[in-house]
Design brief:
With 352 residues, the chain is mainly alpha-helical. It has 15 helices and nine strands. The chain has a three-stranded antiparallel beta sheet with strand order 1-9-6. A two-stranded antiparallel ribbon has the order 2-5. Strands 3-4 form a two-stranded antiparallel sheet. Bound molecules: protoporphyrin IX containing FE. Protoporphyrin IX containing FE binds next to helix 11 and helix 15.
Length: 352
């Protein structure tokens, strides 16, 4: 029975993406990356890179993350007015995820552009232009990674045991095919920056819009952990998760038939008044805070510890380095549904 259910799940994902992406490179990517495969493949793939994401491995990155943040802060002190997205919230996650994977961060703009096109193709409606651009992005990204991987294979001395690329290369041929290897790398680079970028942009925006909470965090930085959860609850970077109902199920008084596609609106669940007291209030001290921004179940985000660490280092340093950060223009929110993106956020900083 268990096997039957899993096979049903795998079949429908391919059916669903087949209808959307045809036989394009986007189909290959989205049906191979860890987030869209079912056990036993999911278990096998997730186990390989899990070691790079243990709390101990992530804690070892704190100094490097702090160094990166400090380098952006120097630039921000000099500029005074700048776009927070391009100068900070995009740079940090992409620099960090490139370093965790073992990819040169100078290529961050290429990666950002490809990620945008590949993940953009997951929006509920897709134009032919988006399909073409997304497919071209998958092909270019694959070629780029093949070159990186070949370089590593011929320069074995640069492989490091804690870098994901090294772990994946080691597993290639044994537990992972070449196609699987390439698509896990693409997914990791995409998943690891777009979401964290939006957590940082929205987080700062909400703190600016709720000045009492901003001041509270400045005065009592020990509230940082609950503040991060509240930012994630209030502005989840991913708004929708999708599943297919594998068995006819009752939810409240609604019957969901086996086979029904289910769209879980994370943003709605995070403001459920039965779960959260005054859900429309942004309260950095909120506890407990059982938001769903990292998902749940076997596909729960593998990068939780990394995302939290980035947020912790970034917000503490921002709050304590500047007396004030203000918006100099209204932030530009992207016209997307699945990803909650701030495209541009002009801010002005003033020193103590
Ligand atoms: C604030 C930042 C982040 C948010 C809000 C977020 C959110 C999510 C969500 C909701 C899922 C589950 C998708 C589903 O069930 O369909 C997910 C999966 C995943 N995330 Fe994240 N993520 C973040 C950062 C990261 C980072 C930094 C990395 C790694 C560098 C990462 C790697 C992954 C991976 C590998 C999966 C797939 C896990 C699996 O299928 O087993 N994420 N993320």
């Amino acid at each position: 029975m268990f096997i039957e259910i899993l096979e049903f799940g795998a079949l429908t994902k391919k059916t669903e993406f087949g209808a959307k992406f045809g036989s394009s490179p986007l189909f290959e990517h989205h049906t191979t990356s860890v987030v869209f495969v079912d056990p036993p493949d999911h278990t096998r793939i997730r186990k390989i890179f899990q070691q790079a994401f243990t709390p101990k491995a992530i804690l070892g990155l704190e100094k490097d993350i702090a160094k990166l943040v400090d380098s952006y802060l120097v630039m921000m002190q000099e500029k005074k007015t700048f776009d927070f997205v391009s100068d900070f919230s995009f740079r940090l996650p992409v620099d960090v995820v490139c370093s965790v994977l073992g990819i040169p961060s100078e290529d961050r703009n290429l990666i950002r552009d490809w990620a945008h096109k590949i993940l953009g193709a997951l929006e509920p409606k897709l134009t032919p232009k988006q399909l073409d651009e997304g497919s071209a992005a998958v092909l270019n990204f694959k070629q780029y990674l093949k070159d990186q991987i070949n370089f590593r294979k011929t320069h074995k001395d640069i492989n490091k045991s804690n870098e994901i690329l090294s772990l994946l290369i080691e597993a290639e041929g044994l537990e992972l095919s070449e196609t699987e290897l390439l698509h896990q790398c693409i997914f990791m680079l995409n998943a690891g920056h777009e979401t964290s970028t939006n957590m940082l942009s929205h987080g700062l925006n909400e703190l600016i819009n709720h000045r009492d909470q901003y001041r509270l965090l400045q005065k009592e930085p020990e509230r940082i952990d609950t503040a991060i959860d509240e930012i994630l609850r209030f502005q989840p970077p991913i708004q929708i998760n999708n599943r297919r109902c594998l068995e006819t199920t009752m939810l409240g008084d609604v019957t969901i038939q086996k086979g029904t596609p289910v769209h879980m609106i994370i943003a709605g669940a995070n403001r459920d008044p039965l779960q959260f007291f005054e859900p429309e209030t942004f309260d950095i001290s909120r506890s407990p805070n059982r938001h769903l921004s990292f998902g749940l179940g076997i596909h729960i985000c593998a990068g939780i510890n990394l995302a939290r660490l980035e947020a912790k280092v970034a917000f503490l340093r921002l709050m304590l380095s500047f007396k004030d950060i203000n918006l100099s223009k209204k932030p530009k929110i992207a016209n997307r549904i699945r990803f909650r993106e701030i495209k541009e956020m002009q801010v002005e900083v003033s020193s103590f």
